[in-house]
Amino acid sequence: MPVIKQADVIDSVADALQFISYFHPTDFIEAMHEAWKKEESPAAKDAMLQILVNSRMCAEGRRPICQDTGIVTVFMKIGMNVTWDSELSVEDMVNEGVRRAYQHPDNVLRASILADPAGARKNTGDNTPAVIHMTVVPGDTVEVEVAAKGGGSENKAKMVMLNPSDSIVDWVLKTVPTMGAGWCPPGMLGIGIGGTAEKAAVLAKESLMEPIDIHELRERGPQNRAEELRLEIMDKVNDLGIGAQGLGGLTTVLDIKIKDYPTHAASLPVCMIPNCAATRHTHFTLDGSGPALQTAPDLSAWPDLEYTPDESARRVNMDSITKDEVKSWKPGEVLLLSGKILTGRDAAHKRIVELLDKGEELPVDLKGRFIYYVGPVDPVRDEVVGPAGPTTATRMDKFTDQVLEETGLFGMIGKAERGPIAIESIKKHESAYLMAVGGSAYLVSKAIIGSQVLAFPEMGMEAIYEFEVKDMPVTVAVDSQGISVHNTGPAEWQKIIMQK
Fold first, then answer.
1. Which co-factor is required (predicted)?
2. Which segments in the chain show pLDDT lower than 70?
3. Using CA atoms in the order 410, 412, 418, 420, what is the torsion angle rounded to 10 degrees?
């Protein structure tokens, strides 16, 4: 009878989480590379190139693919014949592995987990606890699947209780456009069908642990209704023209995953959860022989590509920028930013608005500045800052008008689209919103040559920093006239696809 030791569980979980922080699954890289080669939209092709280059840089440098190193989800299948040599519970062993992984001195991972979610929302400091699903099965091993899921994609999860006669495909096609680009396409959609509401959600999440194999399925042909749905949904979602980062293009999803379960005769629960361009998951098996450690993939699995901005990209000095210069930018134009920018995301914006409401002075003068929506990873070794990609901009929409109105802020930098309320405010104040590519955090960090905390240091990664950047690549996503490329791009590419 196999004996699973406490140390083996902890070491294996910690190793897996470090591994997936900087190694994409190679099936994902192959699928992304194929999509990049076929892409015809210049903006989408540029975004995918940044993602591919970022991925190789992370594999070589062993630093996080994305600054959002995720909430940990673990699926465990525990054999009935297994015995344990442990003073800790299974949950505590897993969480100790998470703690060690996220505090590894050579590759510090960002702690994003907040306790008391409806109250104080205080950071636990070590990214624990994980979300753990355990089942007991026949056998004498422990099979473990580990994933780290970023908030931007997790926030776009959708769930519905359809009528049994309703079309799942119609619901998906109606719902995907409402998700915007905050989930950082191209990625995967995991769909859980059946069971109960909570079972459908677990099925959807579990399906995302599977490798990308839609091309093999297409070649051999579907063998059941779930496989037919995978192909139909894949083609019809890509026909929407949403494209990489929501900029418009041929590829929105790289694969569709579906798991189903018997359900009540009156019910059709469906849950859809996207996986972003920072897809991170792996698995291992414990059999009592020691820890199960990951094997590094061969770097030849990554295409040998370099990222060089288009020659037409406009260089912008952020230290001397004027409102007239901001008004001259065109939607979809690529800019290379140099000089000083500020950072700030949810917690900082909330604090800023509270101070404005009280008529109190802000700790940082925002007049004439740009603010970057980011929560960076702590630096290691000689880094100025750790991976520092953008966070989802729509979460700041409710603060935008007041901040622009009362501070003299010139503009913002973030990920994905802005909502109607923010676009209207940008137009009113003749401001601008610039988009950095989600899934290129390490690449972006190399453009940051200086960093210091200016305000709210107690907030950790949510503090206000001042970054000095050199040739940081961004795209004009909303110009001073309120024209959004996230509206115009997908509409244009949907028409192009329909004409093919």
1. [4Fe-4S] cluster
2. none
3. -20
